[in-house]
């Protein structure tokens, strides 16, 4: 996990090794809702923040209850009341957090779904884009919210797409293929693998570009979680019995 620091935002995508969790959650599980020992999860989260230089801000860590929706929570005020309100909204159910406040880390957890970190001058966002969020264009909604919060233009946004299930590993129903093809065009289907293999990464990139993010400003981890389970957790490959890796970001005080 080597963090990058664009626009003063430290960000990283974690892998599954180097933590405290045991068994099917081994070892850097960062998800608190998959059945793991919560003390291990908390220690893992602290470990990640320390690696990013944000260990002292553990008490301000924002982690939403991810519900495969398109709700975006925004924290744009550095008051304790604003933080508590954003925390409450996130825990009630959200799949993206926009933050323009310093020293407030944000972490979302994944095991095949698409992690998206967006960075703009003055703020950042972390989004969870499963198939439901992807077809709802949550990455585009998050881009719009980030730009409203920072005053940046979409063309100033940098996007980082983290490790997710690759198209060759993601066979879905004909109905889902039809829905995605209607929304994103025929190239969302990986026909080299078969008629029902869906490319979620392509759909997320398309949504970002449609939202005004420059194609050259989008970077993507192309390793498929389902075929690299020695590095990442995969809900599909591990039949639902696994931990979660994460996308995490924060903006340090200058």
From TrEMBL:
It catalyses: adenosine + H2O + H(+) = inosine + NH4(+); S-methyl-5'-thioadenosine + phosphate = 5-(methylsulfanyl)-alpha-D-ribose 1-phosphate + adenine; adenosine + phosphate = alpha-D-ribose 1-phosphate + adenine; inosine + phosphate = alpha-D-ribose 1-phosphate + hypoxanthine. It comes from the Bacteria. It holds the Pfam family Cu-oxidase_4. Keywords: Hydrolase, Metal-binding, Transferase, Zinc. InterPro entries: Cu_polyphenol_OxRdtase (IPR003730), Cu_polyphenol_OxRdtase_sf (IPR038371), Cytotoxic_necrot_fac-like_cat (IPR011324). One of its GO terms (molecular function) is copper ion binding. Belongs to the purine nucleoside phosphorylase YfiH/LACC1 family. PANTHER family: PURINE NUCLEOSIDE PHOSPHORYLASE LACC1, UNCHARACTERIZED PROTEIN YFIH. Purine nucleoside enzyme that catalyzes the phosphorolysis of adenosine and inosine nucleosides, yielding D-ribose 1-phosphate and the respective free bases, adenine and hypoxanthine. Also catalyzes the phosphorolysis of S-methyl-5'-thioadenosine into adenine and S-methyl-5-thio-alpha-D-ribose 1-phosphate. Also has adenosine deaminase activity. This is Laccase domain-containing protein.
């Amino acid at each position: 996990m080597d963090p990058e620091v664009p626009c003063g935002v430290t960000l990283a995508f974690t892998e599954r090794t180097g933590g405290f969790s045991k068994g099917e959650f081994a070892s850097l599980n960062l998800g608190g809702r998959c059945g793991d020992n919560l003390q291990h999860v908390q220690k893992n989260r602290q470990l990640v923040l320390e690696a990013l230089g944000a260990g002292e801000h553990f008490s301000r860590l924002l982690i939403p209850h991810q519900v495969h929706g398109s709700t975006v929570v925004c924290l744009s005020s550095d008051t304790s009341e604003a933080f508590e309100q954003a925390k409450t909204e996130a825990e009630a159910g959200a799949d993206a957090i926009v933050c323009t406040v310093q020293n407030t880390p944000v972490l979302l957890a994944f095991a095949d779904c698409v992690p998206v970190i967006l960075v703009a001058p003055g703020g950042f966002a972390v989004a969870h884009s499963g198939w439901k969020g992807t077809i709802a264009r949550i990455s585009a909604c998050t881009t719009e919210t980030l730009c409203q919060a920072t005053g940046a233009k979409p063309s100033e946004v940098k996007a980082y797409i983290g490790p997710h299930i690759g198209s060759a590993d993601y066979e879905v129903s004909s109905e889902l293929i039809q829905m995605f093809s209607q929304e994103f065009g025929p190239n969302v289907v990986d026909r080299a693998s078969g008629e029902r293999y869906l490319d979620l990464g392509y759909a997320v990139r398309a949504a970002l570009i449609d939202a005004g993010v420059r194609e050259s400003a989008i970077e993507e981890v192309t390793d498929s979680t389902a075929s690299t389970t020695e590095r990442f957790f995969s809900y599909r490959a591990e039949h639902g019995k696994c931990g979660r890796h994460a996308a995490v970001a924060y903006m340090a005080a200058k």
